[in-house]
C-alpha cells in the first residue's frame, strides 16, 4: 500500500507530493555528487513512484542539474551522468533525483519530506545502506549498523533492493 509523501524545499517556494511503496530512509548515498550537494556524509534517498509526482506549488521555480561525470584539463565538462537532481534555486534545498535508467522510480531526498513526520523506521532485521563508497575517501564514516557497498547492492536494479518491508535485507 503506497504512502503519500509530502515534500518541500526549506523556503516553501516549492511543494510536492509523491507516493512511495518504500517510504523508509534506507540508502545513504556517499557518491561524490551527493556529498557535494548534500553535505559531508552524503544524502539519504527514498524511492517514489514517478507517475505519482505532483507539483503543488513552484513548478516554474524548480531547477535541475545533470551531474558531470568527467572534466577536461581546464575543468570543462566532457561527459555527464544520466541522472538529474531537482532543487530550489532560492534556498538550495535538494528535492529529488531522477534517472531515466529507472523510469518508474523517482528518488526524493529524505531531507525534503515534511509528512509523514517522522518517516517510518527501518524494520527490525533490515539495515541502512551506505552506497557508492567507491567515490569517497575510506576515512568517511559509515553510520553505525549500516552495511557499506562500494557501488550499488547486488541485484538487477534499484527496485530489486526492496525485498522485505521496503528495504534491502541480505
UniProtKB/TrEMBL annotation:
Ranges of residues in domain CENP-V/GFA: 5-150
UniProt-recorded Gene Ontology molecular function terms: carbon-sulfur lyase activity; metal ion binding
Keywords assigned by UniProt, alphabetized: Lyase, Metal-binding, Zinc
Highest taxon of source: Eukaryota
Pfam families according to UniProt: GFA
UniProt keyword Metal-binding, yes or no: yes
Family as reported in the entry's similarity comment: Belongs to the Gfa family.
Protein name per UniProt: CENP-V/GFA domain-containing protein
